[in-house]
Amino acid sequence: GAVVSQHPSRVICKSGTSVKIECRSLDFQATTMFWYRQFPKKSLMLMATSNEGSKATYEQGVEKDKFLINHASLTLSTLTVTSAHPEDSSFYICSARAGNVLETQYFGPGTRLLVL
Amino acid sequence: GQNIDQPTEMTATEGAIVQINCTYQTSGFNGLFWYQQHAGEAPTFLSYNVLDGLEEKGRFSSFLSRSKGYSYLLLKELQMKDSASYLCAVMDSNYQLIWGAGTKLIIKP
Q1: What CA–CA distance (Å, rounded) separates A6 from B41?
Q2: What SS3 state is found at A107?
């Protein structure tokens, strides 16, 4: 299957700092990438959808100025958590889809963020 | 509203068979996905059903009945490594994935 990488896998930062998470599709071109957030024992919560070269579409309740998403190329999307606070601590997962909307989403390994 | 229901937790014995059910009510339907997620890891794709019937893939099978808004994931010859959460997700008319909360499967020796 297709491979999606995510970096870093784990990050601890101080409150008020910004954290950037990278998501890369390694063996296919991802026309669409998705960013999810998951709290312990809860399901995935879609934060935003991004298509290469265009602005991300954010889900209701997700602050676009706080969670900056850039999908600069067909293999790379980044999520920057700006001015992180302890409540932003979570498991952030990206997924990528190659072609049309019926294609399978392949997930990255996730990034565990802890804000102190 | 859109809704995906699946049991919160199930327990089964190594070597046995387990069926994880998923019922859904969504605005439109463009397929149903099952993903496996081990603790602390990202989900991995298991199966995709868009037509009624059973899809078999090794020890795992997935069934869909669109008229009943119902799917199940069947796991045979359970192994300890199958202990994980199993997520049911439906693609709605806007091609958005609607996720269930997941079923935690505990395998006992």
Answers
A1: 12
A2: strand
Distance (Å, whole) CA A49 – CA A56? 6
Q: Which residues does chain A have within 8 Å of residue B100's beta carbon, measured at their own beta carbons?
A: 43
Q: Which residue is it, tokens 């700006």?
A: A82
Cα-to-chain-centroid distance, residue A79:
5
Closest partner residue to A43 (CB to CB) among B95, B96, B100 is B100
Contact B42 A104 (CB under 8 A): no
Reported confidence tier of residue A102, pLDDT bands at 50, 70, 90: low
Alpha carbon of A93: minimum distance to chain B alpha carbons (Å): 7
Residues of chain B with pLDDT under 70: none
- Phi, psi for residue B88 in degrees, rounded to 5: -100, 135
Radius of gyration of chain A measured on its C-alpha atoms? 13
Provide, as residue numbers in chain B, all residues whose Cβ is less than 8 Å from the Cβ of A37.
Answer: none
Rounded to whole angstroms, the Cα distance separating B98 from B92 reads 7
* Pair B102, B7: CB distance under 8 Å: no
